[in-house]
Amino acid sequence: MAGIYIHIPFCRKRCSYCDFFFIINTKLKREFLSALKKEISLHSDNYRGEIFDTVFFGGGTPSILTADEISGILTSLKENFRIERSSEISVEANPEDFSRKKTEEYINAGVNRFSFGVQSFIDAELKFLTRQHTSDSAQEVIKFTSSLIKNVSADIIYSLPSQTSEDISYSIDRAVECGVSHISAYSLTYEKGTSLYKSFEKEPAMKNDPSLEAELYLSVSEKIISEGFDHYEVSNFAKKGFESRHNLKYWTYENYLGLGPSSHSFFHKKRWNNPLSFSSYVNSLVNNILPAENIYEPDKNQSELEYIMLGLRSIGIEFGKYEKLFGADFLKKYERSVNDITSKEFAVLTKDNLRLSESGYCLADEIIARYF
Ligand code: SF4
Question: Which among 253, 260, 246 is positioned nearest to 292, based on CA atoms?
């Protein structure tokens, strides 16, 4: 089954480290929602035979939308696509957008998974990241949400300047205490064009060196695993049964349709994206034209490498699926690489699967570049 990603392109202000696509002018919400509904209806004929079982509202800030607006989008999806009754419906949520009432309204609208962009439970770190919530307010809203539904995730950012592993453990402890069943832990990245990058240009020493980053990564992983979470993707941890079904589609080479400006799609072996421009996106749909651009079909070598890379960064290479997709026996083709990385304990080999170990996850990019 396939997934649907919807990019909600609004934020109230730009966080210091963020280079995602969004606009600040929320007055354009109505224009966006009507373009999105047009995009959904223009796509419907192309996916008649498909069944979708995940919908992911990402952004930007999806929680800028009211529950009625979320419900309107879901209704429009159900009118145009076959959406499974038991679908995972996720929303990326900024803690400052939620009151108890709004959380309940979102659940009543059909949302059954919340992914909170907390990043830290230490106020000084939140200030450094220019986030708009406080540790206390985030804890309150996540505790309340977890008391209503179990599928709740928190994002944590680590490797901040002069942050210690105790600081990160403190944030992880608070997330666990709030009852989350999923944690995404990302290291701070310095993207060109962000205000964080400008600070880094003035003061390069603020960025941790790769060896400290690797050390912090291992301590974060160890800590979250010790709390009973499974490390199922390089940056993602879940209690049993609470893996992100939507994100697993990206990592296991399943089809997904992206809607909204800057969204990416992968369907029937083709990849494309929507424009990174609000006006191009809306104008195209006003003229009844789907705004897809950069449509291409990766060649066999490229597809194979993508599959191996995504698999090794997550739940492993499934040999049956590999053979079905690429018509070859993975173990025969990569015998030497597999022997090498398993003997160094970077990966674990079972009858059906090759999966990276904790030390392998830490070196995932190097392993993929060197061995495949
Ligand atoms: S709320 Fe999220 S998408 Fe918006 S600026 Fe901050 S990090 Fe970026």
Answer: 260
Kindly report, residue by residue over 181-216, the tens digit of the pLDDT: 999 999 999 999 999 999 999 999 999 999 999 999
The answer to whether 225 and 231 are in contact (CB under 8 A) is yes
pLDDT score recorded for residue 325: 95
pLDDT band with cut points at 50, 70 and 90 for residue 274: very high
For 203-334, where are the alpha helices, taking DSSP H only? Answer: 210-226, 245-251, 278-286, 300-313, 319-326, 330-333
Closest CA to 278 of 44, 31, 74, 82: 31
| Mutational test site, ligand 1, from 8, 13, 15, max ligand atoms within 8 Å of CB | 15
Confidence band, pLDDT 50/70/90 cuts, at residue 337: very high
Q: If you take atom 5 of ligand 1, which residue's CA is the nearest one?
A: 14
Ligand 1 centroid distance, CA of 133 (Å):
12
Residue 10: DSSP 8-state: B
Q: In the chain, what are the domains? A: 2-250 (3.20.20.70), 314-371 (no CATH)
| 188 in contact with ligand 1, CB cutoff 6 A | no
Percent of the chain at pLDDT exceeding 70:
100
pLDDT tens column, 52-71: 999 999 999 999 999 999 99
